[in-house]
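INPUT
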Amino acid sequence: MTDTLQRKPVSQVANSDCFTEESLSKLKEIMYEMRAEAGNHLFWEGDAADKLYFLKRGQVKITKASDEGKSFILYVYNTGDLFGQVDPFQNSVHSFNAEVTENSIIGVIQQKDLEVLLWQHGDLAVEFMKWMGLMHRMTQTKFRDLMMFGKPGALCSTLIRLCNTYGKNHGSEIVITKKLTNSELADMIGATRESVNRMLGDLKRANIIAMENNYIVVKDLPYLRDICQCENCPVDMCRI
Amino acid sequence: MTDTLQRKPVSQVANSDCFTEESLSKLKEIMYEMRAEAGNHLFWEGDAADKLYFLKRGQVKITKASDEGKSFILYVYNTGDLFGQVDPFQNSVHSFNAEVTENSIIGVIQQKDLEVLLWQHGDLAVEFMKWMGLMHRMTQTKFRDLMMFGKPGALCSTLIRLCNTYGKNHGSEIVITKKLTNSELADMIGATRESVNRMLGDLKRANIIAMENNYIVVKDLPYLRDICQCENCPVDMCRI
DNA sequence: TTTGTGATGTGATTTTCATCACACTTCCTT
DNA sequence: AAGGAAGTGTGATGAAAATCACATCACAAA
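OUTPUT
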């Protein structure tokens, strides 16, 4: 019932949790490992989209840049997350950029290999379908949150998602164990740094959040949930 | 190369085109048919999400209502489209409403039956995965278009998507063969009716679009594409 | 210690968009 | 033919958010 009980320890949360041990190890068998340094790009818009990526360790952001130089952060993936495009086009290309933001170890899966595996293993195919469905719903609910409740709603939704992804409970407070700049938050919600700064200031003054050595601490989650009409989706879905 | 060559005849475009004849008929075998009248709802937010729907004939809108009574139209599905939620939760519920907007004939697929089918038929599983990937990308690109380019960009993107979904070429012009009210367009882009009305007025005055007995006619597609930094995605992806 | 760099905080101003109010049109219906 | 409902068009006004312009702060590197 309460939000705090629902939250898993932060170390466990990853979207590859959708898979059983066996399925995950089948996937791991067809991966080849690569390392990528912070600052590099895994792929750019327009690159061929024929691979999946399993983030064994590190962080990758999926972004989109506009002509005017603005950047929009669509997803932030962390250790244990699986991501990438699968679609029915022969010469499919990426619509987004994948920016490596921490030194990472990545398992790469070729779409062709994945297809063979799914073709062979019905149980994996079913799990895979559910994983895809979950990722799609995550996108849809984020879309809704960022479109429907103004910039304050978008920010509150994002803070909640950050709690679900990086949150550690300290009594009734939740520490977002990940340093974030105002600019990063702005790019996640399609706002400016200045707007985010002012909104965070408002939330601090109203004692909804606080800063503890540069980490955001959420003191009043129900308030955040109220602003973006949060419906208490499963935490695995309500993520960054 | 040109946009007009890329567009298929409107009668052919449906997201179930992802499937081969055989796969589609396998899916059809596990459907049961139902009829739904315009104005009814296929499902509401909070209803159990354990079915897929194949729209044999008619139209269904996926919407979200805010507390203040505003409505946001996430998708509009038409004859030949397949839709619904698949996810890994045991008691999964819908986050959106499905509103039947034309009298429809719908094939309903139980998730359990689908799972068995995917488990048995590897080729179907692979096609299904690609269909899911396509739908997800459609959501992502729409998300980007509605977030990054202001309300005019959102409108232009939506007009392009409407061309790809309902467009008929008349020489260099494209007739959107579907009547749309300003309010509907507003709900598709998260704007007000008045804003849409003014923006459409601007586009008419600039000779970008025109009205022909209440249908929108696009006279200058490149202009629309420029406003929302359109990248000429596959038409199957760039839809409403 | 100084200097440079990236980040934060904040006022003033402008732009974008929503809201409110109302006239007008179209078309359906009884 | 009259009335009503739904839709369109448009001005005036206000609120939300972006933009611009600096001041300040934190911290790492020289």
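end of record. Chain A has two domains: 3-146, 150-227.
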